[in-house]
Amino acid sequence: MTNDAPANAGNVVVVGATSSVARATAGEFARAGHGVILAARDMDANERMASDLRVRYETPVETVAFEADDLTEHAQLLERCQERADGPIDGIVFCAGFMDEQAAAQDGFAVAHRTIDVNYTAAVAVIEPFAAHFEERRSGFIAVLGSVAGDRGRQSNYIYGSAKAGLHAYLEGLRNRLFPADVFVTTVKPGFMDTKMSFGLPGLFLVMSPEAAGKAIYKAIHNRKNVAYVPWFWRYIMLIIRHVPEFVFKRMKM
Ligand SMILES: NC(=O)c1ccc[n+]([C@@H]2O[C@H](COP(=O)([O-])OP(=O)(O)OC[C@H]3O[C@@H](n4cnc5c(N)ncnc54)[C@H](OP(=O)(O)O)[C@@H]3O)[C@@H](O)[C@H]2O)c1
What we know:
By secondary structure, the protein is an alpha/beta fold. It has one domain: NAD(P)-binding Rossmann-like Domain (Rossmann fold), CATH 3.40.50.720. It has helices at residues 20-31, 43-57, 77-84, 102-106, 110-137, 158-178, 210-222, 234-243, 246-249, and strands at 11-15, 35-40, 61-65, 89-94, 141-145, 184-190, 227-230. Helix 1 (20-31) crosses helix 7 and helix 5 (110-137) packs parallel to helix 6. The longest helix has 28 residues, at 110-137. Bound molecules: NADP nicotinamide-adenine-dinucleotide phosphate. NADP nicotinamide-adenine-dinucleotide phosphate (NAP) binds next to helix 1.
């Protein structure tokens, strides 16, 4: 991670850029003078967002196409970003994710498969080449949006939660691998955020705006946090939830 001075700021890739949280996070990097490369499947929305960031922050903003389902393409994402970037890539923020209703994920394997592929498989496939590149350069950062849902399996969304739990374990190992190379890995664990994914879901509480989440994610990366709950108090909520004994937890409606 570079400092805040625009002259020293490098390029940051934001994957799943059409997420409102990703957009807000990209905005924070652009505001700090970083070049930004936006990767998303909806290229019209991606281009509109790039134009907006260029005008607002007068920083280079490029776009690349990213379709999480196309696993064969992921190894090339780094190269495609390098072709578009003016200078080296210094970091990646992986924000792509997918969640459907738990009932849909239980009904046949198609939705469960997509949930696992977008949240876990695509993340690993995209991040591994970035990890190798940063390790060789001995600098860079990787930040990924997991979820508090990955901290404990609950009947209401355990398929999504299990993909995020796998992602958390992957990032933990990656952090351990990259530490000697001075490459830092931040696992972001958001609570509820007011986005397209959570729209209309029942039982939401303590919902954070995408703008506030973007600021918190940027700050966590800037401060080289290992694991950042967003907002911070979810660390304590999840601490309590994780410590409920299993013989009690399995009887609860969550
Ligand atoms: N919202 C919450 O309460 C909450 C809580 C904890 C964690 N999270 C995590 O935060 C991250 C951002 O999510 P969000 O809340 O901003 O939801 P969102 O608006 O649905 O954003 C998800 C992003 O992933 C992209 N995506 C989904 N499937 C894809 C695919 N097959 N190929 C390429 N891109 C794909 C979406 O693209 P399109 O715009 O084209 O659909 C969008 O850019 C996700 O990892 C999510 O799991 C969210």
